[in-house]
Amino acid sequence: MLNNIHLWIGAYLRQRVTRCPLPLPPPTKGGGSTTHIIFSIVDHFEPRWGGVARDTEIERTERFLSSYGALVQKHRDPSGVPPKYSFFYPIDEYTKECVDRVADFCRKGFGEVEVHLHHKDDTEATLRQKLLHAVDVYTSHGLLNTHKKTGLTQYGFIHGNWSLCNSRADGKWCGVNEELRVLRETGCYADFTLPSAPSDTQTSKINSIYYAKNTTAPRSHDRGVDVAAGKAPSGDLMIIQGPLMLNWHDRKIENGALMGNNPVTPRRVRLWVDAGVHVAGRPQWLFIKIHNHGCQGDHLTDGFFDGLDRMFTHLEKGYNDGKNFRLHYVTSREMYNMIRAAEEGKDGDPSQYRDHVLLSNVKKT
Question: For 353, which of 6, 196, 255, 341 could close a Cys bridge (C-beta 3.0–4.6 Å)?
Fold first, then answer.
């Protein structure tokens, strides 16, 4: 698990000096200002994983949606919002029957759909064609998002095989050095791929929300300018990272992955908080983006969903006392909207900014 740690260990050590851990719950007397925990699950949702037959693909989708839907009925944040789910559905594995089922689930208020893509040996032109095709397909299902001012369709993105901006050392699973620009020009509002450790695609910049500037070289997003309160956007695409920490107790890398063989524990949740992902100048709004590969391997077991149940319970009890901590369940779009609000200098309760810039196309039933 320590493969390629040289790519990011310097940034990690610097952050551990500059980012002071927050007080552990339960709240201490005297309090201080409330820290808002803005929590999102982004799923590389791949029911076709392993090249299974269509019937199996549909059965996996139905099983996941049924199990997750039953689970979240028991959980709410202080605003009455259930744990939201962001389905980054791979357009290269599109099956209408599965997307129809996911769309119906989203219309019940439990999530939203964004774009996922596995691709290789592409040019700018072929990549653009694939992304615009994804936009057309998913909007035909009543999915994706609309910019409030421009009326244009927008989408969040996760790159298959972690290879954003041609970042693999062997050059596989992308091919387009100028991917950031193509994403922006086709309507991408932010990338949610990272962290990718222990892959060699991991950036040197970690635990950050930043703007990356497109170049003609691979790995344009390796560095960038932090999103900051009161500062205008700078760059081609916003990169929203999840936590990347060292779990000294368990001798593991903590990369925010929800895995059946790596159950969520209070210690892991604490590391997500301590990663301190925030907009510069708004340290009281912490953004925790956890990722999953739904419908793969051991993710479709009762034990896996029981683990999610315990995770939500711990968040609601340990990080939601209303004084030191307040919890907010969000989709990736809502997280982006809150980030943009912080960037514009907004403060207070971030839940009021769920629809700040982008509106979901999903019509709730």
Answer: 341
Q: What are the backbone dihedrals phi and psi of residue 244, each rounded to the nearest 5 degrees, phi first?
A: -135, 110
> Which CATH number belongs to the domain containing residue 233 in this structure?
3.20.20.370
For the stretch 53-83, pLDDT in tens is 999 999 999 999 999 999 999 999 999 999 9
Q: Would you call 78 helix, strand, or coil by DSSP?
A: coil
Asked if 165 contacts 221 with a C-beta cutoff of 8 angstroms, the reply is: yes
The DSSP 8-state label assigned to residue 109 in this structure reads: I
* Phi, psi angles (nearest 5°) of residue 199: -60, 155
In which domain, by residue range, is 98 found?
33-360
- With a CB cutoff of 8 Å and minimum separation 6, the contacts of 112 are 84, 85, 86, 87, 106, 143, 145, 331, 332, 333, 360, 362
Say how far apart CA 57 and CA 295 lie, in whole Å: 9
Task: Report the predicted TM-score, pTM, of the whole model to 2 decimal places.
Answer: 0.96
- Name the domain count of the chain: 1
In a domain, 8, yes or no: no
pLDDT tens-place string over residues 85-110: 999 999 999 999 999 999 999 999 99
CA dist 98 and 61 (Å) reads 6
The long-range contacts involving 25-30, CB below 8 angstroms and separated by at least 24 positions, are: 25/318, 25/319, 25/321, 25/324, 25/325, 26/321, 27/321, 27/323, 27/324, 27/325, 28/324
Tens digits of per-residue pLDDT, 286-340?
Answer: 999 999 998 987 788 999 999 999 999 999 999 999 889 999 999 999 999 999 9
